[in-house]
Design a protein that fits this description.
Layout: H1 4-7, E1 8-9, E2 42-43, E3 46-47, E4 51-56, H2 60-64, E5 69-70, H3 79-88, E6 92-96, H4 106-126, E7 131-135, H5 142-155, E8 160-163, E9 166-167, E10 170-171, H6 178-187, E11 190-193, H7 211-214, H8 216-230, H9 233-236, E12 241-244, H10 251-254, H11 256-264, H12 278-281, E13 286-288, H13 294-304, E14 309-310, H14 323-328, H15 335-350
Parallel strand pairs: 4-6, 6-7, 7-8, 8-11, 11-12, 12-13, 13-14
Antiparallel strand pairs: 1-5, 2-3, 9-10
Helix pairs in contact: 5-6
């Protein structure tokens, strides 16, 4: 859970490529790191392949195209990542990159996304049993984004698409993005949605506590999802598969107010005629499990169903180091539900072989 500024700072000072993990190729800083015993996750006697749906990386060459550098350095892949995955019991990470390119002009965006997606594909090819990745696209140029998504999935073998919660001043529900959602629905891929810290929050959330991140990020997701519901985007593309980060923000915790709003003030819900109650759309979305307490996870399960939750850690940011244990310790879950949250559901969505 982090803002764009957690990823990027200053002018680019170098263009060192991503470092692929492997037995014969390790980051010099970690060359002498001690091996870690790989934790195997078992549910009722069955070994479960765990899949982390929320894991980040970055490529210095791509950032440099916009005069930015990777920050923190832990976003650049190293052998240490595999060790930490092994320690936490994470078999596969689904890699995403938070968008920093939504202001880029068409030429820069085209070069950046091509480089970035090719790097993602190369990384995954180097460690196919440990990594899959979401394609990145230039949402600010919808026709180009459609091409990039199709190429990323069909040519490069990327498993889905990552998006921010807004594109400049435009909400994701804006009709200009309909061609992108149509292509994502056609391809049947998962869309991973991550907040990018709306600049409107800067004034109210400045000060102690890192509130732009702590409060602003989940609020950003709440706003984006609410627009997609109320503007009819999810009705228009019923097959669209979206995974909302950070447990969907605040929306699942207070979604009944959305239903009540259309009853109390019906004139405010007439511009678009929804096919269902607002809360019913929540059960067709997916959510990561970055919620910090067993009770928060229990509540989200009660609201949307265990089938919609996917294990997430937010690596390399140390928000959640007990993601596997929170799921294993949810006593009300069946074995099938527990295994689904740990990895079975994500494996189906991302085409990961057992």
């Amino acid at each position: 859970m982090h803002s764009r500024r957690d990823f990027l700072s200053g002018a680019a000072t170098g263009t060192a490529g991503v470092l692929f993990t492997g037995c014969d190729l390790v980051n010099a800083r970690h060359a002498h790191a001690q091996p870690v015993q790989r934790r195997e996750v078992v549910v009722n006697g069955r070994r479960v392949k765990t899949v982390d749906i929320h894991s980040h990386c970055a490529f210095p060459e791509a950032n440099a195209l916009m005069g930015l550098k990777v920050n923190p350095e832990s976003l650049v892949m190293s052998a240490e990542r595999i060790q930490q995955m092994d320690a936490q019991g994470i078999d596969v990470e689904a890699l995403s990159i938070n968008p920093f390119w939504y202001k880029a002009d068409r030429d820069v965006a085209e070069k950046l996304i091509k480089l970035q997606n090719e790097k993602l594909a190369e990384l995954c090819a180097a460690q196919p049993d440990r990594f899959v990745a979401f394609a990145t696209v230039a949402m600010q140029h919808p026709d180009l984004a459609v091409q990039q998504l199709e190429e990323g999935v069909k040519k490069l073998g990327l498993r889905g698409m990552s998006v921010g919660t807004a594109v400049g001043d435009d909400e994701l529900a804006n009709p200009k993005f309909h061609p992108i959602w149509a292509k994502a629905e056609e391809l049947g891929i998962l869309v991973f949605m991550h907040p990018i810290a709306a600049r409107e929050f800067e004034r109210r959330l400045r000060g102690n506590g890192g509130l732009v991140n702590v409060i602003g990020n989940p609020l950003d997701t709440t706003i984006a999802l609410s627009h997609m519901i109320f503007e009819g985007t999810l009705d228009r593309y019923p097959g669209l598969k979206i995974c909302a980060s950070h447990g969907g923000g605040y929306l699942p915790s207070y979604a009944a107010r959305s239903d009540a709003g259309c009853v109390t003030f019906p004139d405010r819900c007439t511009a678009v005629q929804l096919k269902k109650k607002p809360t019913e759309y929540l059960r067709q979305l997916y959510y990561d499990t970055i919620m910090f307490t067993p009770e928060a996870m229990r509540h989200l399960i009660a609201e949307v169903g265990a089938s919609q939750l996917l294990l997430g850690t937010d690596y390399p940011f140390p928000w959640e180091k007990k993601a596997v244990d929170y799921i294993l310790n949810q006593s009300a879950l069946s074995d099938a539900e527990r295994a689904g949250m740990l990895g079975d559901t994500a494996a189906k969505l991302l085409g990961i072989k057992a």
